[in-house]
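Entry for the shared binder. Reason: the reviewer on the internal report wants the predicted structure included alongside the sequence.
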Amino acid sequence: MIVDTIANLGRYNIPSRKEIARYLAGKEALLLSVPELEINGRALFVRPSAYVTRNAEEGRFESHVKYMDLQYVFQGCEIMETAPADAREALTEYDPKADNQFYKAGKDISRFLVRAGEFAVFFPGEAHRPCCSPETGACEVKKLVFKVLIGV
């Protein structure tokens, strides 16, 4: 997992980081106009979203096998959570078509605030629960989730 400002994206050896940076530099006005946009076929695509954050207990932890998530918040802020593998109890079987599996919260949860202009990276196998309200209350968020194919 990585959390940083988008200005520091180039510091990390993240697959497709240059393509993501180019996308962000040229497309911000169109971010929410489509449900999903392929940047490099299914190897790199982005899912824009706009929502109001919720209480953490209303969400589920998820993990992926094939795709890394780079979640970039460009408006608002939210709490994202992670949990170690041994602290998770599966709620669903792995869905290979959706590339996700959901889990109960469990114990040893780490929480961090992601503000506008910041991103979080979750690698395959890293359980995460995004979209949670900060302590100040619910927040309107606009976010891009870049899906980067790194597994088979």
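Summary line for the report: Residues 2-149 form a domain with the Jelly Rolls fold (CATH 2.60.120.370).
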